[in-house]
Structure formats: C-alpha cells, structure tokens
Write a structure and sequence with these properties.
The protein has eight helices and no strands. The chain has about 170 residues and is mainly α.
C-alpha cells in the first residue's frame, strides 16, 4: 500500500476537482489497462541488456497524456512534475521514483509508431469512449471579445448603417 504524502493530504481537503482531474479519473476507469499493456508487451524491450526499461503502463499513460493534452515530449515531462492530476494519473510517486525523461517518452512513442500501435490505440480509445457513453468531440473556439471601434462609413453612400446597434 502506498503511503500518503503531505501533498495527497492537502489535496484531499480541496472543495472542487478540476475538469482535467475529472477527465483523467474517467479515462483511468474506462481504459482496459491490462489488455493494452498486453498489446505493447511483445514489442517492448525486455531489459536483458542495458538499463532496465520503465513500466509499460506508466509509459502508456504518459503517451496518452501527451495525445489528450497536445503536449510535446519535454512538455509532458514538465506537466507531470507540475500537475497533481497528471502525476496521480501516471501513478508516479516522487518519493520512490523519477518521471521518465523526454527521451524515454520519445523512444516509446517511436516504438508505438513503428508497429502501428498508435493508430490502434486511437481507434481503441474511440471505441471505449462510445461504449461507455463518453464522446470526444473537436470544436472551434471563437473569440467574442467586445472591442471599442467606430462604426464604419465605408460603403457606397458613405453613411452609417441604420441597422447597426452598439453593445455596452
């Protein structure tokens, strides 16, 4: 059992969860981690030579954070150091381990791409989201900031538009 840190205790007294934290909790529940780790395992280094590899599930979780939040390799590493929600999602405990560095994540991403697993996981995420009633949608953000500007007289009559109204 993992020992609770002062940070965990402090965060447990918060009055509200962030949208990011709620999203990551949902994803943690609905993704079949054991099944997905099993898909990567045949391609992942065994650790017989060189430095022992990081856990597959931890690397997969970092990769998914990178995809979901549109982060670069260095930004993903920094986000885990910076965000309690992301650190909790990856299961990294700073007292016992370090965050895998950007090069390790880059090599993992290239491994997935080389074997076509990135497309497989994208399709799998969509299937899981649909099956559980969650839906990922793209959209457009429109800046509707009201700015001060004089009404235009650049028309054929060189007059102000009578249908134009001002907003306050």
């Amino acid at each position: 059992m993992k020992q609770e840190t002062f940070t965990d205790i402090e965060y447990s007294f918060r009055k509200k969860k962030t949208k990011r934290e709620e999203f990551l909790e949902i994803m943690d529940e609905i993704i079949p981690w054991d099944e997905w780790v099993g898909v990567i395992e045949p391609y992942y280094p065994s650790g017989k030579r060189g430095r022992p590899p990081m856990g597959i599930e931890k690397m997969l979780r970092m990769y998914l954070l990178q995809i979901w939040f549109n982060l670069s390799d260095p930004a993903t590493e920094d986000a885990i150091y910076d965000s309690y929600a992301m650190r909790t999602f990856t299961g990294i405990d700073f007292m016992t381990e370090a965050v895998p560095d950007e090069t390790t994540l880059c090599k993992f991403r290239h491994l997935l791409e080389a074997h076509g697993l990135n497309k497989l996981f994208f399709d799998a995420i969509n299937r899981v989201m649909v099956a559980t009633g969650h839906m990922m949608r793209g959209g457009t953000i429109v800046d509707a900031t009201i700015i001060n500007a004089p009404s235009s007289t650049k028309n054929a009559q060189k007059a102000r538009d009578p249908e134009m109204h001002q907003t306050k």
